[in-house]
Write a structure and sequence with these properties.
Blueprint: E1 4-8, H1 16-26, E2 30-34, H2 45-50, E3 53-58, E4 66-71, E5 76-80, E6 93-98, E7 101-107, H3 117-139, E8 143-148, H4 172-184, E9 187-188, H5 189-193, E10 220-224, H6 226-229
Parallel strand pairs: 1-2, 7-8
Antiparallel strand pairs: 2-4, 3-4, 5-6, 6-7, 8-10, 9-10
Helix pairs in contact: 3-4
């Protein structure tokens, strides 16, 4: 059985101790990282190799950035960059073949302030993802599209839904785009295992340390193709990482 996780690290070099501790403790087979905030040449590949992982990555100085890590082997890159807009320079998508499994790691635009140009870019990027996702489903290979979708799909995915009504992650258009992917056949792994449980992957930092539990959101998702959905055994959140020293504002999802 393959164990897969996704983690918005919010700066791979600044959060490296947290990342390495979590990797060593959990031994996931495949790990997708988002928001690397580093150029390609400064990605900490040697430190990651020391804890037993190979990697491919698509970096960008100070912003964005995605990577796929595989335990005990090097992933085979299939694609970097989402098709549909050759002028898009953001490092938000990378894809690998891992022993016949197609793994897409994505960092969907946040979209704030909304409405406005950033929200328009988010919806256009989402439309490209939906279109490309259909191609992947038609190809028929077992596939996972995981990462920070910057979308809170339903009220159960927020501790206090009304708090986010003016935020792009909870706008109806964002939620509808996510629902469209589910309608196409992608399965939300957490909701398959926990259909009515409030699980969260993001919390605001609190002043003076810690995190604001009332701000919990689920916006990091693992979407799996139908053949993988039939084999799904478990899904959850490694919330313990959120309490470590100098953590990301996200917790890993597996």
């Amino acid at each position: 059985m393959v164990r897969i996780a996704t983690f918005n690290v919010n700066g791979v070099n600044s959060r490296l101790p947290v990342l390495l501790k979590w990797l060593a403790a959990t031994n996931y087979d495949i790990v997708c990282l988002q928001e690397l905030k580093t150029s390609d040449e400064k990605f900490p590949i040697e430190a990651i190799r020391e804890v037993g992982y190979g990697a491919i990555w698509h970096g960008q100085k100070s912003y964005n950035g995605v990577a796929i890590l595989t335990r005990g082997m090097d992933p085979v890159e299939r694609r970097r960059g989402l098709p549909g807009d050759p002028d898009d320079t953001h490092s938000r998508y990378i894809e690998a073949d891992v022993d016949g499994l197609v793994v897409g790691c994505l960092y969907l635009p946040n979209g704030n302030p909304a409405p406005g140009p950033k929200f328009d870019y988010k919806l256009a990027w989402f439309a490209r993802l939906i279109s490309y996702g259909r191609q992947l489903l038609e190809a028929g290979a077992p596939t996972v599209l995981c990462g920070d979708y910057n979308v809170v799909p339903t009220p159960i995915d927020a501790v206090a839904p009304r708090r986010w009504l003016g935020d792009a992650v909870y706008f109806p258009e964002s939620r509808q785009a996510y629902a469209e992917m589910l309608d196409d056949g992608w399965a939300d792994a957490v909701r398959r295992i926990h259909p009515e449980k409030g699980l969260y992957t993001y919390w605001n930092h609190s002043y003076g340390g810690g995190y604001d539990r009332s701000s919990g959101l689920r916006m990091d998702h693992l979407l799996i193709s139908p053949s993988m959905a039939a084999q799904l055994r478990d899904a959850g959140v490694d919330i313990e990482t959120r309490a470590l020293e100098k953590p990301s504002d996200h917790a890993p999802r597996g």
